[in-house]
Automatic annotation (TrEMBL):
Compartmental location: Cell membrane
Ranges for domain HAMP: 315-368
Signal peptide per UniProt: none
Keywords tagged on the record: Cell membrane, Kinase, Membrane, Phosphoprotein, Transferase, Transmembrane, Transmembrane helix
Originating organism: Cohnella rhizosphaerae
Keyword Oxidoreductase: no
Record bears the keyword Chaperone: no
SUPFAM superfamilies per the UniProt record, alphabetical: ATPase domain of HSP90 chaperone/DNA topoisomerase II/histidine kinase, HAMP domain-like
GO CC annotation: plasma membrane
Descriptive protein name: Sensor histidine kinase
Length: 601
């Protein structure tokens, strides 16, 4: 086998090994990323569902205020609950209207309320107020929820979703869940009866449907006693058996009727219910297998195409090489008049043929001199162009990258490039001293770059006295402090990262406080860093940004000003920056005087 064929074979094998190795690695991480992305989107919807249901629980007592905050309402309710029979209610329209008005005042406080149900412990009578028909009816024992209410003791109870009469003329049914509490009256203080408020599940369903094309699996809200409050699959009554203990322990997989599910669980503090997202493991595996098939298939197709193109290109190159070999044989046989036919192609083989022909014309020496002369000329032109480069080149390059990222659908990357270009432009164009308003604008661009990276994991706030904005500050003084937080302080696995930039005028000085809830420092490390600032001697690289900012402050303003730190491990870190109230014009003038040796600012 000729050498170039062996070379083609070896290169093809190397390419295939590398390509498939990269494909498998890419598929592995792509599947993990796809799983994490879809589960995170599902987790966001899960939080929204949990928060909505939690708001209903928190709002429950507010709904009952009309019963107790108005004396007449309390009296009306007490008369009904303490009556030994229901004759007054049945025979006296005034009594009935009073109760209807009272319960209506509760129902209008929440548009999701479908009905308000009352049960008297004294007689066992059961009443239902329907928010659609605005009527109060005495109902039989088979009405949904009342059997459970009869067994209820003191305290609040949660009831799962059941179908009840909607109260409309077409006799339709609506799915509702309930929250119940105990009623007390003037003479029966603790347990005169129960009140249960039922809510339409449509609001929860709308939250789910708004994002169901981006989520996986089934969303449920389940009370600790097994009541299913919400099920995105609407399988009420066929929920399947769940192991509550596994969920309370934070298990990320769970078995339901023999099938394995990935479970994302949200449980609010001091609540007797959980919200969960159940994704069948086989569904995630199917998506992963499909993604693996697509990646491997694409790599295989590219490998086959590349192999074909490589073979064709090799064959063309081989033919050109044979032409050169044949020409050398002619010249070697003293046929100096032979010339390689030139085909006008701009490639290496044409260059070799041309040089070969020139050598045969005994002009190799001249060609070499001309060739190297041209190289020197091009090199000089290149150096001249490189010397003439300015920041405008970087701006245009960043803009080209931004447009490419935007065209590829990477809007967040494009936005980060825009912010980086703006930040670089500001750092290059602005003078040594700028107004505080401009410094905060630069910091905001820097923060926004990291906000795009950390997305929902980061919150920040800027609270600076507007009176400070006209004063001057050394350019890029605050940014290294903010950078120190993003590099060393932020907790990347937490969702409640937050920092605040505060600014105020204090005792004739400008005081900035940059505070975060990040990793913090222990007392020994804090003392070490603070001592290094006072001694003007940096300790390592981890706090170099703070040290450099402190050094610049003392160089410009003197030793009376600088940076102080406060920190607690895993609680907070506060960096205080104190500088005098000087305009940027005053600072520039002072800096000029200092540089010429006429004085000290």
């Amino acid at each position: 086998m000729r050498f170039h064929y062996r070379l083609m074979l070896y290169n093809t094998l190397i390419f295939l090994i590398v390509a498939y190795s990269l494909a498998l690695v890419a598929a592995h991480y792509a599947m993990k990323f796809n799983k994490v992305t879809q589960l995170q989107q599902s987790h966001d919807v899960l939080n929204a569902l949990n928060n909505y249901y939690t708001s209903k629980n928190d709002h429950f007592l507010f709904l009952l205020f009309p019963l107790y905050e108005i004396q007449n309402n309390y009296s009306v309710m007490s008369r009904l609950m303490e009556a030994s029979s229901e004759l007054d209610y049945e025979n006296d329209p005034f009594v009935k209207q009073e109760m209807v008005s009272l319960l209506e005042s509760i129902a209008v406080r929440d548009p999701d309320i479908v009905s308000v149900q009352l049960r008297k412990n004294l007689t066992g009578a059961q009443y239902v107020y329907n928010s659609q028909s605005r009527t109060l009816s005495l109902v039989a024992d088979d009405r949904p929820f009342f059997a459970e209410l009869g067994r209820k003791k003191l305290g609040r109870s949660l009831y799962g979703t059941r179908p009840i009469d909607s109260g409309k003329s077409n006799s339709s049914f609506v799915q509702v869940y309930g929250i119940a509490g105990t009623l007390g009256t003037a003479n029966i203080r603790q347990n005169a009866g129960q009140i249960l408020i039922t809510y339409n599940t449509q609001a929860l369903q709308r939250i789910y449907e708004a994002s169901n094309d981006k989520t996986l699996g089934r969303f449920i809200i389940v009370a600790e006693d097994g009541e299913w409050v919400y099920d995105s699959d609407n399988r009420y009554g066929h929920e399947g058996r769940l192991d509550w203990e596994d969920w309370k322990q934070g298990e990320n997989t769970i078995m339901i009727d023999g099938e394995k599910y990935f479970a994302q669980v949200v449980k609010s503090v001091n609540r007797n219910y959980i919200a969960a997202n159940l994704v069948p493991k086989k569904l995630v595996d199917q998506k992963g297998d499909r993604l693996l098939f697509i990646i491997v298939g694409a790599v295989t197709a590219m490998a086959v195409l590349c192999a074909i193109l490589y073979f064709l290109a090799g064959s063309l190159a081989s033919r050109r090489v044979r032409e050169l070999v044949r020409a050398m044989k002619f010249v070697g046989s003293n046929n100096l008049s032979y010339r390689i036919p030139l085909k006008g192609k701009a490639d290496e083989f044409e260059d070799l043929a041309e040089r070969f022909n020139m050598m045969c014309d005994e002009l190799q020496e001249t060609i070499h001199r001309e060739y190297f002369s041209q190289l020197r000329k091009k090199n000089a032109e290149l150096k001249a162009l490189q010397a003439g480069l300015n920041p405008h080149f970087l701006y245009n390059t960043l803009e080209a990258i931004r447009i490419k990222a935007f065209d590829d659908g990477n809007e967040r990357v494009a936005q980060m490039i825009v912010l980086l270009a703006g930040l670089y432009r500001s750092l290059v164009r602005d003078g040594t001293f700028i107004q505080i308003s401009r410094e905060l604008s630069i910091c905001d661009m820097y923060i926004q770059i990291f906000s795009l990276r950390y997305a929902s994991l980061l919150e920040y706030e800027v609270d600076v006295d507007p009176k400070m904005l006209i004063y001057g500050i050394p350019k890029n003084l605050l940014q290294p402090i903010i950078e120190n937080y993003f590099v060393h302080g932020i907790r990347e696995k937490d969702e409640n990262n937050r920092f605040v930039i505060r600014g105020r005028i204090e005792e004739g000085d400008l005081l900035f406080e940059i505070e975060d809830n990040g990793k913090g420092m222990d007392p020994a490390r804090l003392e070490e860093v603070q001592s290094s600032l006072e001694a003007m001697s940096p300790v390592g690289r981890s706090n170099y940004g703070i040290y450099s900012a402190h050094e610049r402050i003392q160089l410009v303003y003197g030793n009376a000003y600088g940076i102080r730190l406060e920190s607690e491990v895993n609680v907070r870190t506060c960096v205080s920056v104190r500088i005098p109230m000087l305009s940027s014009g005053q600072l520039n003038a002072s800096f000029t005087v200092s540089a010429s040796g006429d004085g000290t600012p």
